[in-house]
Write a structure and sequence with these properties.
It is a single chain. The protein has about 425 residues and is α/β, with parallel strands linked by helices. It is about 25% helix and about 25% strand. An eight-stranded mixed beta sheet has the order 9-22-23-21-20-17-18-19, sandwiched between helices. A seven-stranded mixed beta sheet has the order 12-11-10-13-14-15-16, covered by helices on one side. Strands 2-3-4-7-6 form a five-stranded mixed beta sheet. Strand 14, helix 4 and strand 15 form a beta-alpha-beta unit. It starts with a strand and ends with a strand.
């Protein structure tokens, strides 16, 4: 098959969407709206849709640009999906992705939301997770990222254009010293904390990381040339299915495996807007469910609320308890669904669940005993739409705004403000 297809939109996940001759929707990565493209012969046909690969751009669309990252084209890197689109077109695609999910899955009568563009289109990520693949039976290994069409493969990373310059500087220092990492390495994460310290988290299935001090010393020296004294490096070892612990460097309490948005600057903007939509909270009781390391709880406290923040990650809660909010916050380690019966009656609720969405028991509590205002923060439009449909029995949408926390990718953060109907 060598169909020529007209691409009309960008789907959730970042693929272009067109129609085959038989009417089936076909999803084609790395294509742009307004283009006519020829597909490779190996189109994968399913009952109601198909998946194809780009063979040739017959007529280029107005939104197509040359991706600046060599990995995007040469290695088919799966970390980004939209580098071939101009930034305005990326924003339009994300607005449409959110709007389509809310209408199609959520059965809600809404228009595509406005979107807040990113402060930085590049070099924004404060966390980089790298894959590891052993080469044959030798001790050699490839550390890098996955091609989008071969998720079991790994190509060596030279540079990630969406990662913070400080992380890439750390990677350049680390890459010649991979032999100092654990011998049975299964994953590697580079992360910045808010004080600028650089964290190396090595996951392995073997013995403890014995060369961590040597690696840290080499990285400290290399980060500041011959003078030394560069930004602090902290090495963590995480056994497979175990908890990470510091094996070289100061123990600061920072939880390197706790969830935090990879774009902290934009996450602050989204969180600030979310709390502002709750209005006057002086004297009110506010729940912060799936609260993570406490950012939203601090903002709620600054607004005058009596805040209870719940998260299942004990390390995140331990870190949050070190914060100094404007007024005391009760931080609880536990799952939201288990903790609900112990919480005081709320006047306002903020939820920021993982990509799987709200636990059914949380949905039942919020619909069975509605609160005046509920803010839902999500980076998965599909589960957001599903949960909003369930909540719509007792709530109406007051406002929706998207935030581009993840430029060059198909991900989008959405904040929805609900009021009791």
């Amino acid at each position: 098959m060598s169909d020529v297809v007209a691409i009309t939109a960008i789907a959730a996940g970042g693929d272009g969407v067109g129609r085959l001759r038989d009417g089936r929707a076909v999803f084609v990565p790395r294509t742009a709206p307004g283009e006519r493209v020829r597909l490779r012969a190996d189109v994968k046909l399913h009952k109601s849709f198909a998946r194809g690969e780009l063979a040739e751009v017959v007529a280029s669309g107005p939104a197509r640009v040359t991706p600046p990252c060599p990995h995007y084209a040469q290695d088919r890197c799966g970390g980004c999906q939209l580098q071939h689109l101009a930034y305005d077109a990326q924003l339009a695609a994300k607005r449409a992705i959110v709007g389509d999910a809310l209408r199609r899955i959520g059965k809600l009568e809404v228009t595509d939301p406005e979107i807040v563009e990113a402060v930085e289109e590049w070099r924004y990520r404060a966390k980089l997770s790298l894959a590891v693949k052993s080469v044959g039976r030798s001790d050699r290994r490839t550390v890098g990222l996955h091609p989008y069409d071969r998720p079991s493969a790994v190509f060596p990373l030279a540079d990630c254009h969406i990662a913070d310059f400080r992380l890439m500087a750390l990677w350049r220092e680390l890459k010649p010293r991979l032999e100092l990492l654990p011998p049975r390495l299964t994953g590697l994460t580079l992360r910045l904390d808010r004080e600028g310290r650089r964290h190396v988290i090595a996951e392995s299935a073997g013995d403890p990381w014995l060369q961590a001090e040597r690696l840290r010393a080499a990285l400290q020296d290399g980060s500041a040339g011959s003078g030394g004294g560069g930004p602090a490096v902290i090495c963590w070892w995480q056994p497979v299915d175990g908890a990470a612990r510091v094996v070289a460097g100061p123990v600061t309490g920072f939880p390197p495996t706790a969830f935090e948005q990879a774009n902290p600057e934009m996450a602050i903007l989204a969180g600030r807007w979310a709390v502002e939509q709750l209005g006057d909270l002086r004297g009110a009781v506010a729940w912060d469910l799936y609260g993570g390391i406490g950012d939203t709880a601090v903002r709620l406290a600054e607004s005058g609320a009596h805040v209870v923040s719940v998260d299942a990650d004990e390390k995140a809660i331990e870190w949050a308890r070190r914060l100094e909010p404007a007024r005391p916050v009760r931080f609880i380690a536990g799952t939201a669904e288990d903790m609900l019966p112990t919480l005081p009656e709320p006047n306002a609720v903020v939820v920021n669940p993982p990509r799987a969405g709200l636990h059914w028991n949380v949905t039942l509590r919020l619909t069975g005993q509605p609160v005046a205002k509920l803010v839902y923060i999500s980076d998965d439009p599909a589960t957001l739409a599903r949960d909003l449909h369930r909540l719509s029995v007792n709530y109406r949408i007051a406002a929706v705004r998207a935030f581009d926390l993840f430029p060059q990718t198909a991900q989008v953060e959405t904040v929805v403000v609900l009021e009791a109907a």
